[in-house]
Amino acid sequence: MLGPVILAASRSDRMRKLVSAAPVTKPVVNRFIPGETVDQVVPIVEETVGKGLELTLDVVGEDITTPEQAAHARDAYLALIERLKDLGHGTKAEMSVKLSMFGQSLEGGHELALANVRPVVEAAAAIGTTVTLDAEDHTTLDSMFAIHDELRKDFPQTGCVIQAYLFRTEADARRLAAAGSRVRIVKGAYKEPAEVAYQDKREIDKAYVRVLRILMEGEGYPMIGSHDPRLIAIGQELARRAGRKLDEYEFQMLYGIRSEEHLRLAAEGHRMRVYTAYGTDWYGYFMRRLAEKPANLLFFVRSMITKN
Question: Which residue in the list 134, 182, 213, 273 is annotated as catalytic?
Answer without folding.
Answer: 134
